[in-house]
Amino acid sequence: MQTWYLYSLLALLLLGGQRFLYKVAAAKNCGTFLTTFCFMITVAVLSTGLLMLFPPVVPSLVFLALISLANSLTFVSATLAHIQALKHMPATVAYPLIRMNIVLVVLFAVFFLQERLETLQILGVALSFATIWVLARDNAPDNDARTRAKGLILVFVAMLAGALSAISSRYAALHTDLLAFIALSYVFSTLFTLVLAPRMFAPGQAQTKPHTGPQGSRKLAAGIGLAMGLLNLAGFYLFLKALALGPLAIVASINGMHFLVAVVLSVLIFREKLTLGRLLGLVLAIIAIVLLRG
């Protein structure tokens, strides 16, 4: 098994667990701001601490600052929109729709980075697209039309921002120190969360002040944010390692299916419906992951 493929699978599991916590936060009606802020600050503090223990060699501080800035802005936008979208549509629909950003990333890798894929890997990418298409067609009437429309707008924001975040991560993985990139990116992300959250959502939805809401709700939001941060720090580092060693199109396609973990856990824990179409999508995704190994 190639090292980058193993890193990709481990990142899939860890980041899938993190994404499931998005669903938990939405289901428990935790404030989007507080949850996201605790998530970002956890990664920023831990990665900065590791950076002090293991000082990096950074080829260009200017490049590090610019790529971290770009990654953090897109990642925070995707995260806020992702959590909020789950309050308007079921996880089994929202996750695969947001994962449509794989299409944008793969097209970028093939046409701009000139990546060449083996036949089985091309089939795996095609099946990953088919997985998303099958699950995206799920139009079970979980919410009214107005609520779904609002959810789709948030999904589009999360999809576009997520693709840009993945592309910027590729450049960071190739051209700078990974831990320094994570630390600076999440310092910026914490600041962007403070700025963007109050502007992206209405005050009643975003809960723009950390002290609003019942004490128990605040503690739960902080705890979920902390857990997100721990999973993300490990998963994001492995994702960057995979990007540094393997092709962007394949690594992004594997990582993009981390929603499988979130969907399965949502079905098991929150008893979301597992229709025939959703089951077919999950089977296609598993086959695609095997083929992407090459």
List the helices and strands and how they pair.
Blueprint: H1 3-27, H2 32-53, H3 61-85, H4 91-98, H5 101-111, H6 119-136, H7 145-175, H8 178-200, H9 203-206, H10 215-245, H11 248-256, H12 259-270, H13 276-291
Helix pairs in contact: 1-10, 1-11, 1-12, 2-8, 2-10, 3-7, 3-8, 4-6, 4-12, 5-7, 5-11, 6-13, 7-10
- Beta-strand portion reads under 5%
Radius of gyration: 18 Å
Overall spatial form: globular
Q: Ends: how far apart? A: 10 Å
The domain count comes to 1
Count of runs of 4 or more consecutive helical residues: 13
Q: Helix content range of the residues, please?
A: over 70%
> Residue-averaged pLDDT, rounded?
83
Unreliable runs, pLDDT <50, ≥5 residues?
Answer: 202-213
Structural class by SSE content: mainly alpha
Question: Any descriptors?
Answer:
294 residues, mainly alpha, 80% helix
